[in-house]
């Protein structure tokens, strides 16, 4: 049940968001060790955002998962998502943060919980 929330100040107008969503889904599933059918990715663009005192392209993300996260996985996820943001949205890797939450299943509702 990994959920990746990505926000950026870059406009998504004219951007192939489907490719960003599918690449991020695949990477999260692979690295966290969960089926793609369990992965959710939320992408928000044109979010008012300042990083380092400027409004140049930047992004912030949060990844919530029930297990599958550890320092090695987090490092790989951060690098992989940074590459997508840089390639698809021209967000420099130095202007992006990703926060990780490893949580318990009891804190989430899914299907018939």
Explain briefly what this protein structure is.
By secondary structure, the protein is α/β, with parallel strands linked by helices.
Strand and helix order: EHEEHE
Q: What oligomeric arrangement do these chains adopt?
A: single chain
**What is the share of helical residues?**
25-40%
Q: Name the overall outline.
A: globular
User: How many DSSP helices?
Assistant: 2
Global mean pLDDT: 94
Euclidean distance between termini CA atoms: 13 Å
Question: What is the β-strand count?
Answer: 4
Low-confidence parts: none
Largest sheet: 4 strands, mixed
- Spatial extent as radius of gyration: 14 Å
Counting helices, strands and paired strands, the structural category is: alpha/beta
Strand content: 15-25%
Q: Strand order of the main beta sheet, please?
A: 2-1-3-4
